[in-house]
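Order emerges. As here.
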Amino acid sequence: MTADRYVSQKQGASGARRSRWARAASAALSGLIAGFTALCVAELVAAAVRPEAGPVTAVGGAVIDRTPPAVKDFAVRNFGTDDKLVLQLGILVLLALFAMAVGVLALRHRRTGAAAVLVFGVVGAVAATGRPEGRPVDALPSVVGALVAAGVLYLLTGRLAPVPVPSPAAGETGGGGVQGAFDRRGFVIAATTAAAASAGAGLVGRRLQASQLAGVSAARGDIVLPSPASGAPAIPGGADLGIRGLSSFTTPNKDFYRVDTALVVPRVDADRWRLRIHGTGVARPVTLGFQDLLGRELVERDITLTCVSNQVGGPYVGTARWIGVRLAELLREAGVKPPSKGGRADQIVSRSVDGMTIGTPVEDVMDGRDALLAVGMNGEPLPFDHGFPVRMVVPGLYGYVSACKWIQDIELTTFDAYDAYWVKRDWSREAPVKTQSRIDTPRPFAAPRAGTVPVAGVAWAQHRGIARVEVRVDGGEWHTARLAAEAGRDTWRQWVWEWPATTGHHTLEVRATDRTGATQTDERVGTVPDGATGWHSVVVDVT
């Protein structure tokens, strides 16, 4: 073998390897484009079905439904209100990896690879129809998207078939060879066309959905809430201490916490909305529209809501001025009696338009507290994020057993007969809010100057009220804080203690006592199954 021929063969082998890698990379890209196509086409079809039927949303919802409580608690604790975004990004990353793997598979087994894309459609369809609110038509976005994607992958990988190319040694041997090259130009044109067409479909789908949502948003903006027959008492002048860094007494809507399982916030048309009240012990079933509620006697109350996922010192608590109809009155009109008066039902199961179920004790709703079907929040119709057009608000109970958003159905039943969504996931059936307190200022690891430092925060024990708040430094004696004026036993209460701070590293702790005389425990317990306990502490370095 001559040296020139050896070099020629070596160059040919090297070129073949580069071509194989190029084909494999192009196959992976084909899979990505096919996955992109599936999502974009599904987005377009979902515009005709409903946004919640989109595959990412459907699969994400199914993941949430099957996630252990400890994992959900971890996600809420570490990602806060971004937990849903993190989940969706995770789904997209897994989809991208799956799509690339299928693309590489299709390089050798074209039909098998294209068929594997249909797995994506099956998963999405099962997830969409398997949701509590799922309907057979919800399978369409995933199925149609997967079928189109399978066709795209089949066509693109067809462009990767090797074409004969004369080998460098052909002139010497009188023969020819194949190096595994493919029609790069044809592939690029096909891939670009597929990607552009898919993006166009997705854009049209997004615009159609945006147009639909804009109509619902405009309708909400046209709603004028009637003046409440029973207005909220004026907030006492001393209820908000006005200390920098301290949470305001009333939480603005934009800052109010949101914790739920909805990956897509329901946009309900108030004109089409209906609420049904039925079930055990209901003598006269009731169906109400939104205007029916507005035509009833409305009450306005300041109420603090708390999420059971709130860690000690956490942010998932806020106070708003709610407007709504007393739920107890509606239940009495339907013939419902509380268990203490011989009623047959001890649980209210409220159902949301997104399939969420929440179980609330009948006795608590009908014991005289301001349990509301709320239609307004801080002077405006409920924001979509917080349950428009109607939600439940029950003071004194954690949200997962009381605060059903986007409510559409109320069924009277018993705790023995039915376990609501969170109870099936190891949370307690009943969950009264625990007495808690939080230091808002100084912040953790702050460096205030020595001298008088205001230590301030909020405390809450809804439907019992706060009687005393105490602060201590470095495990020393407890000092009684000054309480802000009380706006009601269903709201939180601000407090402040003027600390004569000295230079050094210090730990501040707070505890509250409610009006029943119970002082919050120092025992640290996690949120599962019925809310966290323990004293909130903050470490600071005084300079």
